[in-house]
Amino acid sequence: MPRPKTHDDLLRAKLLDRAGALLADEGAKGLSLRRLASEVGTSTTAVYSLFGSKPALLAKLCAEGFRAIGDRLREVRLTGDAVTDLVHLGTAYRDTALAQRNLYVLMFAGGDSTSPGTAAEVREELQLVLEPLREAARSGVAAGVFGDVPDDVIASSVWAYAHGMVCFELHRTLPSGFEYPRAYEQGLRATVRGWCR
Q: Mutual orientation of helices 54-75 and 82-99 as an angle, nearest 10°?
């Protein structure tokens, strides 16, 4: 009779869920594999068996974070007005990023051995985040709203604005007079209109 599989998808989901909660509550310093295992009622061996290492667990969490943003952007109903659509997408990006603020900071962390930024799954999910922006940009180029510019360039500029402003907001590095979300949306709209003919 085969032994029951204890390190299964249900345990993986519980570990990811609790790891995400620890990140949300306490940031990366609050997440240790020993604590995670204890809080889920399993062993660190199980965590290593399912994820391989803490960097691999963090990479999986980051992929999930990008997936959440991509899913939210794909839910945005496009109107056919490329400028409005890109502003709505940029606003949805900000809202989703702020809803997972500690994970968002980790998603773009770099320069150390625990950085998950090079994981293939993370890169793949990031490309899926950009696709709704590309789609709206392509629509605008095809309709003659934007100049003859590659859709990737327009999409990347919108993403760069959204990401940069989210980082400023998360690190509280904007002047106190800067009003969210109105000023954010105004800047986003100006960024998009900069590509118009």
A: 140
Contact 86, 137 (CB under 8 A): yes
Residues 6 or more apart from 169 whose CB is under 8 A from it? 94, 98, 180, 184
Cis, bond preceding 181 (omega within 30 deg of 0): yes
pLDDT in tens, 113-156: 444 444 677 778 888 889 999 999 999 999 999 999 999 999 99
- What residues contact residue 133 under an 8 Å CB cut-off, 6+ apart? 73, 86, 89, 154, 155, 156, 158, 159
User: DSSP 3-state assignment of 181?
Assistant: coil
Q: Provide the Cα torsion 191, 165, 153, 93; round to 10°.
A: -100
DSSP SS3 for 50: helix
Reduce the secondary structure of 56-102 to three states and give it as a string: HHHHHHHHHHHHHHHHHHHHCCCCCCHHHHHHHHHHHHHHHHHHCHH
